[in-house]
Amino acid sequence: MKDTSVSLERLADFDEIIDVRTPLEFAEDCIPGAINAPVLENEERVIVGTLYVQSSAFEATRIGAAMVARNIARHLETTFADRPRGWRPLVYCWRGGKRSESLAVWLNLMGWQARRLDGGYKTYRRSVLDALAALPSQFEYIVLTGSTGSGKTRLLRALANAGAQTLDLERLAAHRGSLLGAVKGEQQPTQKAFETALVLALRGFKADRPVFIEAESRAIGRVALPDALLAAMHRSRCISVQAPREERIAFLLDDYANLFDAPDAFKGQLRKLIGLHSHERVKHWCDLIDDNARAQLFGELIELHYDPAYARSSKGHFVELPRALPFEFHPNGTGIDTQARALLDRLAM
Q1: Which residue is catalytic, options 30, 93, 238, 286?
Q2: Structure confidence by residue, pLDDT tens digits, 23-48
Q3: Which one, out of 9, 105, 161, 202, has a CA that is 20 to 30 A from the CA of 47?
């Protein structure tokens, strides 16, 4: 049989990318833009794998082939029913083996020009890891530092609106980066999916212009930043974003307002601070939630938790922080885009 495999460098040559892995594998991560057309469903793959171990490779292959044939038939009748005669799909599975080959054979028999990705998702994943090691050092970064509540994320997004290159790690991670940073209604991506999105963002930047980025710790919620990006951030020049204390409290009251919709869950998050803070102090903060003393709660969190934590984490990592350009920012209300443009003017950009 003629070899129909192609290398990763030819992704752009195809009209559509078809991921034939199970929905669970696809949900963990996929090649950007791919659609999922599994030739084995989640439960079916478990059945085949169990047969392979407990019975025989032949029996597993026989049962699996029947399942694959039924799923391919279903996709031909539904998923691919409207594809034009000259359609050129690229098909991949985990290693570029039997699952992708099975679908590619049938698509080619239909008259379409289907090809398999050589090495499958495993090859793509290796390219992501290689890119994460190499790409971050190719750019100049300007790091927005500043205590929680100073509005760094709002400033970063306003800089993007003003035409600056920005890397919004919290948007990619679907998390605001602190203990209370989960975004209502959004699940965080898996580590692999986060890294795929990060590489896609980095590849969109021009190396002759700086990239604005918000100071982050190694972990943003449950995802972690790659070492090369952290190292590049830590040696980059900094902007010290400063906001008056009352404005920081107002910002947090707005940004974290949804936490008060589920007070028990909010208190559960605060109890995770026991060890950093005494039982008595955390209980006091929980009592403030019950009393709806929102401004007092965030004022104390700023003074006793956020600011000390920021001082500890930043001073030891961001080597240019002592020479940071101070920038007073007012994160609430209107005028945020104007302030972002003023910062760019100060930087002569």
Answers
A1: 93
A2: 999 999 999 999 999 999 999 999 99
A3: 105
